[in-house]
Amino acid sequence: MKDVIAFLRELKQNNDRTWFNAHKGQYLYVQGKFQRLVDELISEISTFDPSVAGLTAKDCTYRIYRDVRFSEDKSPYKTHFGAFIAPGGKKSGFSGYYFHVATGGEGYPDNHMLAVGDYCCTPEALRILREDIAYGQGDFEQTLQQAAPYFCLDCDGSLKRNPKGFPEGTPYEEYIRLKKFCLCHIPDDLFFLSENLPQRVAGLFRLTYPFLQYLNRSIAYSREG
Questions:
Q1: Could you give the number of structural domains in the chain?
Q2: Would you list the DSSP string of 56-111?
């Protein structure tokens, strides 16, 4: 990933169409390198999560062009490469594994990141998930313990009070107040420069498999009927 990270750092310093067009060949080279890594990563993940078997990088990766219509930042290009490996692909609506290579700076989107889960649960899936957590006798918390210490639960934006239908004192209310369900891990450059990167990333994602199953079970149930 050394070449990929170096290109992204240059792009951040020269985020305009003139520079990008002049370096289009370099972009296509690092894009291909990233996509090959994603294909390897899908293959590694499918050894413990068969729901993603058969996906390709094209099913999971994103365009580098930014949608600037509603943004004050008019920079035309993203300065990261991301892949969302979920059952059925990135647009399926299921939770998945997110692999994000960036410039190595502080904060999103500059930091490298591994993430697992869902930032945009539908209201119906969210209701079912909260019910499962409240009455599951700690089984959701067990999935978090299996992912620790590498992954942390993202609690930003949590509700101040319990949602409707969950009175104060409901078991595990710190989890049912969540509006998004995502585990995050922030690696450094050295991690991304390792030779066996797909295997190392998949090894960490394996720890989160029970968590992801828990989420996708609720999403699948919400679609029934």
A1: 1
A2: -HHHHB--SB---TT-S---SB-SSEEEEE-TT-TTSSS-EEEEEE--S-SSTTTS
Question: What are the two backbone dihedrals, phi and then psi, of residue 88, each rounded to the nearest 5 degrees?
Answer: 85, -5
| Joined tokens for residue 118 | 């869902």
Residue 183 burial (CB < 10 Å; 0-12/13-18/19+)?
buried
* Burial class (CB within 10 angstroms; exposed 0-12, middle 13-18, buried 19+) of 154: middle
Structural domain harbouring 57: 2-223
How much of the chain is in helix, strand and coil states, percent to nearest 5? 45, 10, 45
Number of C-beta neighbours around residue 51 at 10 A? 18
Q: What is the DSSP letter of 52?
A: G
> Residue 85 and residue 211: Cα distance in Å, rounded?
15
Q: The whole model's pTM is what?
A: 0.95
Indicate the pLDDT class of residue 194, thresholds 50, 70 and 90. confident
What average pLDDT does the structure give for the chain?
95
